[in-house]
What does this fold into?
Amino acid sequence: MARTNLNATRVKPEVSELLHLRVLRSERISPHFQRVTFGEQDAGRFRPMGFDQWFRLFIPVADDSLGKLPDRLNTLAYLRFLTIAKSSRPVLRNYTVRGYRNEPGNGPELDVDFVIHGTAGDPGAGPAATWAQTCRPGDSVAILDEGIGFNPPAPVDQVRLVADESALPAVAGVLASLPPDTRGHAVIEVPAEADRQPLSAPAGVEVRWLVRGDRPGVPGTLALAAARDLPAADSPYYGWVAGEQALATGLRRHWVSTGVPRENIMFCGYWRAARTRVSAA
It folds into this structure.
């Protein structure tokens, strides 16, 4: 199970309700990212909060998949969700808002970036990534807004943001939402040079991209090493790290060891890489 202190730090939305949306378009924006844009139906009731706003995404697998979903996903509601027959139980995953627009004449639109490894149907692609590559305009989904995790306990003028590709949408949202006088560093690891994205960030925040390429090892390893090597800060900062579990927990451990208060850290293991077991000869 991925480790995190997200539930202890997050800012919940004022209203939690199930929203039904439709796919407006889907496009491959880089070798490892597919962007799906949602809108229509209940999109007008979505309330953007900025930063790393995330939500539960329900992807239907049958015509009746979205008919009996909860308005919130506490422990009891999740247990009830699991009682839905597998033939109709929707795929449930967590995703971050990559972009939000509400332009006159077009209605609200929500961009969601899916990390893609392999083509649709490959064993390692995963059901959500496969769906993102094969969905069509008009396809239905449902979402439950869960709020934001970036939540400093007191005002700070410095940040350290660290992410692998799975958390790129989240760190992009944080950077775009920071006050313009914020200083600090953002370290982002991606699989390929072409996966770098244009980001909006305060001038005082240095954004460093790390391209993994064909290097062996677990994603996030480069980001963890680079974040550990950042120079000492000249004032207190808020540390935010998300991605593969070893990246999140390893950097949290490092920050605490260097004196960063635990309440000044948000860490979240979005996923866990399979570990290879080495047998004795």
In short: Residues 277-281 have pLDDT under 50 and may be disordered. The two ends are 30 Å apart (CA to CA). The first strand starts at residue 18 and ends at 30.
